[in-house]
Design goal:
The chain contains seven helices and 20 strands. Helices cover 21% and strands 32% of the residues. The N terminus is likely disordered. With 370 residues, it is of the alpha+beta class. Strand 15, helix 2 and strand 16 form a beta-alpha-beta unit. It has a six-stranded mixed sheet, sandwiched between helices. A five-stranded antiparallel sheet has the order 6-5-4-1-7, with no helix packed on it. Strands 13-12-11-8-14 form a five-stranded antiparallel sheet, with no helix packed on it.
């Protein structure tokens, strides 16, 4: 079946999202470790594929044993059942070596502290994790009373008495000017003055995927391409910020989103290179929100499809943290498959990376109306 979809119709977008359910990694044998299920209910399948039969269901919070990993899937053992689950929904390291659940993060009561929301729109939840239901969204600049702290979460109360949990990453000291967010750019057309945050995926000890022929490290390709893109955008007058400025840094996904929102980004661009068990080839642009992200994704796909050395596979819905939790227009771009020797031979060249960066620059100019 062909995967190319020039206009990214709804049907093709669904097919692509099923074909690439995760940012994939080469298969590797895993040591026997334990993890906690963070999904509300997690299906266990007979094979590492979405169309495989469901052999069991594991509830949220259950502790499972991981015996193998492959391409974003994890083989687990739970209550005498063995099968494959989406690795995205497992929290490793949440269990002690003895197999008992690790102690939950301590909750500390806070008195007399206030904070200010740094994000454009900060989700307040019923509990201290993203698995809890959203109560409401707090606009940038909202002042809240800080009631409790638990790990990376804060229990906050608004001026009208609404209480809930928010990520501490997006709360600044209400009395400090140092954490004041960068002012958003004007609505004038063109790239001049626009705030663009570029996110070179992975980094540091997290190398991402690796090429099957030349062992190209994704984190390095991401960084090189991002630097080229940053240079081209700055030449066009944009304000450019990088989530990491070296190949040794490894910011968390939450830190990348918080950085974007603290800068008041007009666009957030996450650069990646792909991998698959299938002989897939070409680029793919992911978005999360149809209203916020899809127009940016379409602009970028249109330029990538214009010819940079690899075909475009269109756009697709992607349930990625840096898109899902980001209040700024955001896309995640896969610029070729390192699992495909032909793709790897092309994308590892500086000429391809330069063409990709130029195409994304022109797409952003299109998106902002030249």
């Amino acid at each position: 079946m062909k995967t190319t979809c020039k206009k990214a119709s709804l049907l093709c977008g669904l097919w692509l999202s099923l074909s690439w359910p995760f940012h994939t990694e080469p298969a590797q044998a895993a040591s026997v470790i334990q993890a906690k299920v963070v999904a509300t209910s997690l299906n266990v399948r007979s094979e590492p594929a979405l169309n495989a039969s469901v052999v069991a269901t594991v509830p949220q919070g259950a502790v499972v044993t991981i015996t193998d990993e492959a391409y974003g899937w994890a083989k687990i053992r739970y209550n005498q059942k063995v099968g494959w689950v989406a690795g995205y929904y497992l929290q490793k390291g949440a269990v002690t070596n003895a197999g008992s659940a690790s102690s939950p993060a301590k909750t500390a009561t806070v008195k007399g502290q206030q904070g200010t929301v740094l994000a454009d729109s900060l989700r307040m939840r019923k509990g201290p994790s993203t698995s809890h239901e959203i109560v409401l969204s707090l606009p940038r600049g909202t002042r809240v009373d800080i009631l409790k702290k638990q790990g990376d979460w804060i229990q906050a109360r608004t001026s009208n008495g609404q209480t809930g949990w928010v990520s501490a990453t997006y709360i600044g000291d209400a009395k400090a000017n140092a954490n004041a967010p960068v002012t958003k750019s004007t609505k004038s057309p063109g790239l001049k003055g626009k705030v663009i945050v570029i996110d070179p995926g992975h980094g540091g000890s997290d190398v991402g995927t690796q090429g099957t022929k030349w062992n190209s490290m994704e984190k390095t390709l991401n960084y090189k391409t991002a630097m080229l893109l940053a240079s081209k955008l700055r030449q066009r007058g944009a304000q450019v910020f990088m989530t990491r400025t070296s190949d040794t840094e490894k910011p968390s996904l939450a830190q990348r989103v918080a950085f974007s929102e603290s800068k008041g980004a007009d666009a957030f661009i996450s650069i990646h290179y792909n991998s698959s068990v299938k002989p897939n080839s070409g680029t793919l642009t992911f978005y999360y929100s149809q209203g916020k992200d899809e127009p940016l994704a379409r602009a970028i796909e249109s330029r990538l499809a214009g010819g940079i050395g690899l075909r475009s596979n269109g756009i697709s819905f992607g349930n990625y943290h840096v898109l899902r939790e980001n209040n700024d227009p955001s896309v995640l771009i896969e610029l070729g498959f390192l699992s495909n020797p032909k793709d790897e031979g092309i994308v590892r060249t500086s000429s391809y990376q330069d063409k990709a960066a130029q195409a994304i620059t022109e797409a952003l100019a299109d998106y902002f109306g030249r």
